Amino acid sequence: MENKASVFFSVRSIARIAVLGALAGALMYLEFVIPPFPTFYKLDFSDIPALLGTFAMGPAEGVLIEGVKILVKFLIKPTTTLGIGELANFTIGAALVIPAGLVYKFRKTRKGAVIGLCAGTITMTVVGALFNYFVLIPVYSAAFGMEAILGMASAIAGIKDIGTLVVYGTVPFNFIKGVIVSVITALLYKKVSPLLHR
To answer: What's residue 5's pLDDT?
Structure first.
């Protein structure tokens, strides 16, 4: 009987991960630029299903939802950034859901959710800065040219190299994105929680 329950839970979890991942993949197409940030930094709401799944099932499932999201995106539309944009989206999304899920796992209250979302937002901001500085922007500039990147970021005063792009572009953008996604998740979770646990 216990084995059957365990198998049922596994199948149910896989189904929820697949559905939430597909929804997140679709939400990747509802993206827009926030002036004056560079056009390659686009706000989308694809991390919301991952956060909802994280709170309902756990941080590992949240990361899997982030992975399914990227696979769905690749299946629907080929990459225009040689996979760099998708890698950034997955990494920064995972940096958001893991701390949020870990905090909520041990403190399943509204306050725990808020603390988790704050921790996730801070973590994704820090990870995003480091990942952009050491990996993404150097790879992107090797592929497309640093001049092209700085040209897209010229609307922000003070940007002249990778360091200033990260400080004035990456950090505030990821922080704003984290806050927006966290607020929407906090407003939605209690309403959809019964459906996610059904």
So the answer is: 45
The pLDDT value given to residue 142: 84
Angle of the 110-131 helix axis to the 84-106 helix axis, nearest 10: 150
Please give the Cα distance from 118 to 116 (Å, whole number): 5
Please state, in angstroms and rounded to a whole number, the distance separating the CA atoms of residues 87 and 108.
30
Q: What Rg do the C-alpha atoms of the chain give, in angstroms?
A: 18
Amino acid at 127: V
User: Quick check: pTM over 0.85?
Assistant: yes
Query: What CA–CA distance (Å, rounded) separates 33 from 30?
Result: 11
Predicted confidence at residue 121, as pLDDT, reads: 98
